[in-house]
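hiii so um. not sure if this is the right channel but i have a protein structure encoded as tokens and i wanna go backwards to a sequence. like what aa goes where. can anyone help
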């Protein structure tokens, strides 16, 4: 058993490394791309693209619930070793996604057009361009929707090399698009929307070709299994609440900012989301490698491996994100000026708050995966999804009372913490999770790491010059402080021994 767990851990490490290579390349490409796009489009058009894209993304309320169902069912069947059932699950998922895509287009097109014309704060001269953005954003959304079964299969098989290579292609295509709009003489906003849809299509075709060539179950055939459809829709139906709350929190907040502050602040929020997404990629990639093991462990009933995996992956997720976030939090304004030159107002504070929100959320990610793995999510979604739905009304009241637009993220942070404790209590009841041990080894652990890490940077930061030398010194101090704190405060004794043994092997 110990040897088997060691193999699983090595697989996680290998897949994580592959995804990190992908992520590092995409982070630099993505950050540079956003700079070029912001420069080419200008603050207003960039803000329009983000807020209209947010309107389309609202319809992931419909699709996102089923997306989680597809991923869970494919990975769960692999964990049970039911290979014969895999093709049935895959084919059923494709059929459902095709029907869903049609429904989304029928409803999203007229609703989106009405919203642009009647509710959004947009210069009247740019409304026609905003409508074209809506059309092509919808097209990209539908194409992405059809990619879900293929991506779920790649993740379930833990073939992260394919995920990495196709992701790299996606990033460099987006960079090419940025340079193309820089040289365009026409309406750059419309051209950007068209070309981004083309990129999504190319990526979708690539996923399809790879899956068909490597996975036997990825051969679509028309099937109508009433029981399977019922199970998937039952799972998706309750998951709908959670997806709704997440979408409304992220994209509803974007729309609220537009209503109260206008497109320029949307641009600032969009830039912050872009940077946060790049940084959060460290955790996302780690969890992409870990999630299949969580679901498969639950499916096979291996709780002896599952519980330590949940605790360890929660801590490691936080450590990975914190070591990147800490130097950014201390040097936000300098980084934004180097990155964008002309920094939109509110952008720096949005960046800092989104990073804090990401740190708050990352320790919950393994718990969410474990909850979804059980398939018994009704009570969970009613409780956690209901809490997250409070983001929009609470943020609206705050903005109405005159709060700054950043309040939308502050509210999300507070509710995120409440949701973490609710998840713990529910998993204790559902799978017997040791909540006391989880709080000691994860929650109190990361708080201690954070406090110790902050001491030295806070003492020396104000004495450093506000130039490149000072920036390099600050980053070095932050990273070293975080690293020392993680190793000597965060790591358990056996983890420190593993690290020392690994360093010795590398040195030899």
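sure thing!! here u go:
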């Amino acid at each position: 058993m110990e040897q088997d767990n060691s193999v699983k851990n090595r697989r996680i490490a290998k897949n994580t490394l592959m995804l990190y290579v992908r992520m590092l390349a995409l982070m630099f490409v993505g950050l540079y791309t956003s700079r070029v796009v912001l420069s080419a489009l200008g603050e207003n058009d960039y803000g329009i693209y983000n807020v209209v894209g947010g309107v389309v993304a609202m319809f992931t309320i419909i699709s996102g619930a089923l997306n989680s169902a597809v991923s869970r069912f494919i990975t769960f069947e692999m964990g049970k070793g039911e290979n014969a059932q895999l093709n049935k699950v895959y084919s059923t998922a494709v059929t459902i996604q095709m029907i869903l895509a049609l429904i989304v287009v029928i409803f999203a097109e007229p609703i989106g057009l009405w919203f642009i014309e009647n509710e959004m704060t947009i210069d009247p001269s740019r409304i026609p361009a905003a409508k074209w953005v809506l059309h092509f954003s919808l097209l990209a959304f539908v194409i992405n929707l059809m990619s879900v079964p293929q991506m779920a299969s790649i993740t379930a098989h833990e073939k992260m090399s394919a995920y990495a290579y196709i992701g790299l292609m996606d990033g460099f295509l987006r960079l090419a698009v940025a340079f193309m709009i820089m040289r365009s003489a026409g309406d750059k906003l419309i051209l950007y929307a068209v070309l981004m849809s083309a990129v999504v299509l190319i990526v979708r075709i690539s996923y399809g070709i790879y899956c068909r060539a490597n996975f036997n179950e990825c051969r679509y055939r028309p099937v109508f299994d009433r029981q399977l459809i019922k199970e998937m829709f039952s799972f998706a139906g309750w998951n709908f609440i959670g997806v709704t709350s997440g979408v409304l929190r992220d994209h509803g907040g974007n729309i609220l900012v537009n209503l109260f502050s206008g497109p320029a602040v949307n641009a600032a929020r969009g830039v912050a989301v872009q940077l946060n997404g790049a940084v959060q990629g460290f955790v996302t990639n780690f969890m992409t490698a870990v999630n299949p093991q969580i679901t498969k462990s639950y499916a096979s009933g291996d709780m002896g491996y599952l519980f330590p995996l949940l605790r360890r992956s929660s801590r490691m997720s936080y450590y990975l994100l914190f070591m990147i976030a800490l130097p950014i939090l201390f040097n936000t304004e300098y980084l934004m000026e180097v990155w964008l030159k002309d920094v939109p107002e509110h952008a720096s504070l949005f960046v800092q708050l989104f990073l804090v929100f990401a740190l708050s959320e990352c320790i919950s990610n393994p718990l969410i995966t474990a909850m979804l793995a059980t398939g018994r999510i009704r009570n969970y979604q009613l409780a956690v999804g209901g809490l997250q739905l409070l983001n929009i009304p609470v943020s609206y009241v705050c903005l109405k009372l005159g709060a700054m637009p950043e309040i939308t993220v502050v509210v999300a942070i507070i509710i995120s913490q409440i949701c973490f404790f609710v998840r713990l209590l529910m998993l204790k009841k559902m799978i017997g999770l040791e909540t006391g041990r989880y709080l000691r080894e994860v929650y109190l652990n990361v708080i201690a790491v954070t406090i110790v890490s902050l001491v030295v940077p806070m003492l020396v930061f104000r004495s450093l010059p506000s130039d490149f030398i000072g920036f390099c010194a600050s980053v070095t101090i932050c990273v070293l402080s975080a690293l020392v704190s993680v190793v000597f405060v965060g790591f358990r004794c056996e983890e420190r021994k593993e690290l020392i043994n690994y360093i010795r092997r590398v040195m030899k």
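oh and The mean pLDDT is 81.
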